Amino acid sequence: MHTDLSPHLHTPYCNQLINELKKCHEEKTFLKFIGACNRFDSAVVKCLKAERIARSAANRAKAQQRQAELKRRLYQSS
């Protein structure tokens, strides 16, 4: 199961992979159950993971900046 695959949540590259996966599922309704679309699925999983890692890194950097700013304010007011 994937996360939400709405287009506004992902990069254009991931959206292209998601569309290819959906197209494969539509065209190969029964073959998808025996692995006909696995390469598209693997590509989507890798792309979504890369997006998640990038988002986490950005959030971590933002949190460190906020913590540094709070410490600076705390020591300034003392």
TrEMBL record:
One of its GO terms (cellular component) is mitochondrion. It is found in: Mitochondrion. Keywords: Disulfide bond, Mitochondrion. It comes from the Eukaryota. PROSITE patterns: CHCH. InterPro entries: Cyt_c_biogenesis_Cmc1-like (IPR013892). Belongs to the CMC family. This is COX assembly mitochondrial protein.
